[in-house]
Design goal:
Largest sheet: 8 strands, mixed
CATH topology: Rossmann fold
Shape: globular
Strand content: 15-25%
CATH class: Alpha Beta
Helix content: 25-40%
Structural class: alpha/beta
Distance between the termini: 28 Å
Length: 278
């Protein structure tokens, strides 16, 4: 099936490609936001699986990754504000008229919810895959201690390096310092702050009343079930449904990333949910 690379640009000079997997005229669509540090083309198998099932999929490219015109570094920095106020509105504006849901993987799921809270009229529902609030309190034991200490190290690491050297630290890629400090602030507080709208994002999410599908993977230690529950709890009224994938259902190790290689079962669950959604 056809994959279109649709170039988008923002008012602050950033450009990237929206990667669109077409299912045909009049098909419902899913705007998909990748995990932290993952280029849009890594979701080609997922986008094609959805397109075969009658759902168009437009995959956003994060600033600093893949087709993005920018790379994080000393003197090249951004945070949640730029992603929410510049990049995501540009991708949403580039979508064809029609019925669109927003969804994402890991950090992308959080941003899907935040983008919908900022532009609720553009979104018919949310798909949250292997995602949740990165609140240290939703982790247990050593994992809680580990994520807390890691988040506390980020301001020092980014101040010394001028960016976040994820490839060296074995978590994400070369990321912007402010982006990672915004993430770390949520680890400490469990809250989403005001990212330039004059109102805390938590308050905006509380007004968002949309049907929501959560996809969990049984061996995903990076996102415990409590993390997804904490994100859904921030949302307003709406039907909230979960789908759990174990090895038998997925056909692969059901961890945070492995599902991307065999996305047929998650894609089928999403397509079925979209068909049944009001």
């Amino acid at each position: 099936m056809q994959i279109e690379e649709r170039r988008i640009a923002t008012s602050d000079g950033h450009a990237a490609s929206l990667r669109v997997h077409h299912a045909g005229a009049g098909a419902p669509g899913l705007l998909w936001l990748p995990a932290l540090g993952v280029p849009a083309n890594k979701y080609d198998a997922f986008g094609q699986a959805l397109a075969r099932l009658g759902v168009s999929c437009a995959v956003h490219e994060w600033r600093g990754n893949g087709s993005s015109s920018l790379r994080a570094g000393r003197g090249s920095d951004w945070g949640y504000r730029e992603l929410l106020q510049q990049d995501l509105p540009a991708s949403i504006a580039a979508l064809e008229p029609g019925e669109w849901r927003f969804g994402g993987h890991s950090l992308g799921g959080q941003f899907a919810a935040m983008a919908a809270a900022r532009q609720p009229s553009a979104c018919r529902g949310l798909v949250l895959a292997a995602t949740g609030v990165p609140d240290a309190r939703t982790f247990r034991g050593r994992q809680r201690l580990g994520i807390s200490l890691f988040a506390r190290s980020i301001p020092l690491v980014t101040a010394v390096a001028g960016y976040y050297p994820g490839h060296r630290l074995k978590f994400a890629g070369q990321e912007a310092g402010r982006l990672m400090r915004d993430w770390a602030a949520t680890v400490h507080s469990g809250r989403y702050a005001d990212y330039g709208d004059g109102e805390a994002m938590d308050a905006m999410l509380a007004r968002l009343a949309l049907p929501t599908l959560g996809l969990r993977f049984s061996d995903d230690w990076l996102v415990p079930e409590a993390s997804l529950r904490a994100l859904v709890a921030k949302l307003g009224e709406g039907e909230h449904r979960d789908e759990l994938f174990d090895a038998a259902r997925l056909g692969a190790a059901p961890d945070h990333f492995r599902w991307m290689r065999q996305p047929e079962a998650p894609a089928a669950a999403i397509a079925s949910w979209i068909r049944l959604s009001p």
